[in-house]
Fold this protein.
Amino acid sequence: MLSPRNQGARLWQFVRNANARRFREEDSEMKHLCRGVFAVVLFSATAAFGQNSGSIGGVIMDQTGAVVPSASVTMLNPDTGVPTKTTSLADGSYVVNNLAPGRYEVTAEATGFKTFTRKGIEVHVSDKLTLNVSLEVG
């Protein structure tokens, strides 16, 4: 028979092991819950940002075909009145993603050049339209 001291030690060890098992089980359940929540958020973000929009991109050049870096490019949806702006990169390229479907007016401006405007560009879901722009000196 175990002495009262040994019985207490064994009881303490049993409680400690039971708590450790319970915490491991709770930790495992928490990991599964976190993974599930992460998956839902990931797929929701993909649906919200990837499938219901289009994009317009291209290259800004001058009349000789040389690229125009740092040109200001604006996409305006006249129905909403919301402009979306970007700037052409060093290679003259630009892109505007996540455009809601609709008609757009594209304006490109750069110092020393006339303003370019193209109206009625129709963007549909998943469109990746290309609009290369040739700016006139002036």
Q: What stands out?
A: Residues 4-50 form the longest helix (47 residues). The mean pLDDT is 84.
